[in-house]
Specification:
- The protein has helices at residues 12-24, 43-55, 70-76, 90-98, 114-126, 133-147; strands at residues 2-7, 28-31, 61-66, 84-86, 104-108.
- The chain is of the alpha/beta class and 156 residues long.
- The protein has one domain: Ribose 5-phosphate Isomerase B, Chain: A.
- A 5-stranded parallel beta sheet has the order 2-1-3-5-4, sandwiched between helices.
- Helix 4 (90-98) links the parallel strand 4 (84-86) and strand 5 (104-108).
- Helix 2 crosses helix 3 (70-76).
- The protein is globular, with a radius of gyration of 15 Å.
- Bound molecules: D-ribose.
- The site of D-ribose (RB5) has 8 residues, from helix 3.
């Protein structure tokens, strides 16, 4: 798979560990930075870069890391077509893919250990989007995105 990765300084270490793991199991990694943990940088631009790579189809999936994972998940979700999920464990990662059809996985480099994050990432990659009611719910999210600020008719 082609996987885009990006992080700010707070997520740099975990991003490096995840990228190395992804390469070791045969994935093609596009590393969108940052390239060190010393220089503080703003997380939105890295989350945006990963989101745009996924939305444009240049990457199949994305991985974003900041200190908590919160900032990158908020920012990545502003890119049209991105469903970014902040996860802390294997179950959350698997369900993010199966139920929410997440296409970007976010971690906190200061809150989640590398071993847990690697296991969660593997679970995410092994999972497949579930269909039926989950398709409908993901379509509802897409409709919200299309509607922008306009109010939606909420189905009963
Ligand atoms: C950077 O200090 C920190 O605010 C950032 O990595 C992230 O945790 C934001 O959500």
């Amino acid at each position: 798979m082609r996987i885009a990765v990006g992080a700010d300084h707070g997520g740099y270490g975990l991003k490096e560990a995840l990228a190395e793991h992804l390469r070791s199991v045969g994935h093609e990694v596009e590393d969108l930075g940052t390239d060190n943990e010393r220089v503080p940088v703003d997380y939105p631009r890295y989350a945006e870069a990963v989101g745009r790579a996924v939305a444009a189809g240049r990457a199949d999936l994305g991985v974003c890391v900041c200190g908590t994972g919160i900032g990158v998940s908020i920012a990545a979700n502003k890119v049209g077509g991105v469903r970014a999920a902040l996860v802390h464990d294997v179950t959350g990662a698997r369900l993010a893919r199966e139920h929410n059809h997440a296409n970007v996985l976010c971690f906190g480099g200061r809150t989640t250990g590398a071993l847990t994050a690697v296991e969660a990432l593997d679970a995410f990659l092994a999972a497949r989007p579930a269909h039926g009611r989950h398709d409908r719910r993901v379509r509802e999210i897409g409709a919200m995105e299309q509607a922008g600020e306009q109010a939606l008719e909420v189905p009963a």
